[in-house]
Amino acid sequence: MKKSPHVGRIRQALRDATTEDHQQVDMLFAGHALGSPESYHIFLSAHARALGALEPVARPATPRLPLLAHDLAALGCHMPAPLPLDVRSGEGYRWGLLYALEGSRLGGAMLARKVAPGLPTAYLSAIHEKGEWTAFQHRLDSAAAQGDEMWLDDAVLGAKAAFALFAQAGADETATMYG
Questions:
Q1: How many beta carbons lie within 10 A of that of residue 149, not counting itself?
Q2: CA 154, 156, 159 angle in degrees (round to 5)?
Q3: Is residue 1 part of a domain?
């Protein structure tokens, strides 16, 4: 698929609007030692609490919740209950959730390399195949073009909601880890 100069325009707008949210989530999860089974379990549990709420609403083409459940089961752990998500109607909101979910795959490959040998990595290794990230950006731009004047505002709300859920899950699990 050929990349046009306009591909990623909406992604960039969402990125600009959620930079601080993204940084907060990164800081919350940076303290997890992915080489430690206990810390890795807490990391995966936090992701499961957020992903369990987000994926049913966002409806990604390639859900990762089953992979996350597999990794937790391989660690001898169960899937935690998902966090509550304040769901708003509208395709823009759903696309904002998708933006955050699909973008999180980009960091998964780097994180998977930090996981200790012998620990499961199906969830973190579920990265985009060649061209999939660009194809997602095409679909995102196309959805925005078909939306109304509030579409981008709704997408920003969705992306911020997704980051907030990951932040809440990360803070909750970190509190559990450190008491």
A1: 6
A2: 110
A3: no
In this structure, what CATH number is given to the domain that contains residue 169? 1.20.910.10
> How far apart are the C-alpha atoms of 163 and 157, rounded to whole Å?
10
- Alpha-carbon distance of 79 to 81, in angstroms, equals 7
Residue 32 · residue 43 · CB < 8 Å: yes
Cβ-contact 154, 139 below 8 angstroms:
no
| Residue 74 structural domain | 10-19+35-178
Average of per-residue pLDDT across 36-54: 95
Structure tokens at 56: 């049913």
Looking at the structure of the chain, the number of domains it has is 1
In a domain, 45, yes or no: yes
- pLDDT per position as a tens digit, 18-29: 999 999 999 988
What radius of gyration, in Å, describes the C-alpha atoms of the chain? Answer: 16
Q: Residue 120's pLDDT is what? A: 97
- Written as one string, the DSSP assignment of 67-130 is HHHHHHHHTT-PPPPPPP-----SHHHHHHHHHHHHHHHHHHHHHHTTSPTTS--TTTT-PPPT
Residues 101 and 62 sit within 8 Å (Cβ to Cβ): no
pTM beyond 0.90: yes
CA proximity to 66, closest of 57, 161, 56: 56
Q: Please tell me the predicted confidence (pLDDT) of residue 179.
A: 58
